[in-house]
Every structure is written in C-alpha cells, then in structure tokens.
Amino acid sequence: MTLTPESFFGSTYSLDFPETKTVSEWTSILRLATKWVFTSLRELAIQRLFGITSPVEKIVLAHTFTIPDWLPNAYADLCKREAPLTIDEGRDLFKLGEIGCDVVINLNQASYEWRTSVEMYGSVNVDREVMAIVRRVFQIGPRATVTAACDDGQDDLAAMLGESDISSQPAKKVGATKVKGGLKKGKKSSGCVVYG
C-alpha cells in the first residue's frame, strides 16, 4: 500500500470549510493543497474560488496553479465586456511575467477582433463567436484539455495543446515554452508530465 499525504492526514483534516472564506483565504488553501498534493482539498479550493473570482483573478490563478479549464471562459468574459482592463488588472496579469504580457496583448487583439466583427457583421451567437476568436488568438484547440502533474506541484503550466483528447493517450514527458498565454512544445520546463 502506498502512503499518500491525503491518506496519512485524512483523519486529521476536514473538508467542511465555512462558505465565508475570501479569495485570499481560498488561494492560500489552494497553494498549500497544491504544494502538499492534497487532491481533494485542491479540488474544493478550485471549486470555491471559481464562484468568487473575477475573470482576471481566474487567469492569474489558472496560470499559477495549473487550472487550464478556467482560461477560455475568463478570456472570453474579458473580451465581451465594454470596459478595458484597469491598471490594477493589468498589474495583476503582469505579475505572471512574460506570460502575463502575452495575455494582455492577446486579450487586446481578441477584444479588437470581436468588436470589429460585431460592427461589420453583427452578432448572432455572442458566446460562440467570442469563444472562436479567443481560441484562435490564444491558440486553444476546440477541445483542449491538459492535465499536468509537476515535480514541485506548483508549476504555472497553462495548457492549450490543440484538439487532443487525453483519455486515449499515455502520459509523456514534454518540454514546454510559454507563449501567447499557452504552451509551445520545445525547451524542457521543470519536468512536468503533460497528457495531451
């Protein structure tokens, strides 16, 4: 029998947290759960954070804690809104380093394309049309799903690898270079296992 941190500590912690936790508190819980590989606690933190975070917070958390499923909708929400990014939102994204810069530039591009498209042709299905632009600009495949398990549990691998379906593919070691808010195969990056 393999002893995991969750099985060892399983009887000492409870997943019954009050609903009044703040984004900061849930982020701390997510950070520790990720670091210590407490899968069920990590999933709970992700679930709770989803409902209380802004699109920019979702993008930062998704890149920091490898939550790729949050990215397309967060990008689309920012593209659809009338107001541009605020100074504080831009600063939050730039805390991600180079990838944050790519996100800001790609958000600007996607938002511009969306607005130009609406002005020229109108819009029939807003969500579908914005998502198509977001997927193209951020190079996200239509069914992009990536699961990453990193050596230190905290790599900010964010994930868009095209149309691969992870259910039928074995895990493989890949190198990754962050570009345009996603991944590009290339240099080795922290020994992450990527399914894709």
Please write out the topology.
Layout: H1 5-9, H2 23-35, H3 39-52, H4 55-65, H5 71-80, H6 87-94, H7 98-121, H8 126-137, E1 147-149, E2 172-173, E3 176-179, E4 182-185, E5 193-195
Antiparallel strand pairs: 1-5, 2-5, 3-4
Helix pairs in contact: 2-3, 4-5, 5-7, 5-8, 6-7, 7-8
Short structural summary:
With 196 residues, the protein is mostly helical.
Features of this protein?
196 residues; mainly alpha; three-stranded antiparallel sheet
Please give the largest β-sheet. 3 strands, antiparallel
Give the C-alpha Rg: 18 Å
Poorly predicted ranges (pLDDT <50, ≥5 residues)? 144-196
Strand order of the largest sheet: 1-5-2
- Strand and helix order: HHHHHHHHEEEEE
- Percent of sequence in beta strands: 5-15%
**N-end to C-end Cα span:** 29 Å
Alpha-beta classification: mainly alpha
Mean pLDDT: 73
Q: What's the structural domain tally?
A: 1
Annotation, overall tally of beta strands: 5
Question: What is the 3D shape?
Answer: elongated
The tally of helices reads 8
Structure description:
Helix 4 (55-65) runs antiparallel to helix 5, helix 5 packs across helix 8 and helix 6 crosses helix 7 (98-121). The protein has helices spanning 5-9, 23-35, 39-52, 55-65, 71-80, 87-94, 98-121, 126-137; strands spanning 147-149, 172-173, 176-179, 182-185, 193-195. It contains 8 helices and 5 strands, in the order H-H-H-H-H-H-H-H-E-E-E-E-E. The radius of gyration is 18 Å and the shape is elongated. A 3-stranded antiparallel beta sheet has the order 1-5-2, with no helix packed on it. With 196 residues, the chain is mainly alpha-helical. It has one domain. The longest helix has 24 residues, at 98-121. Helix content is 49%, strand content 8%.
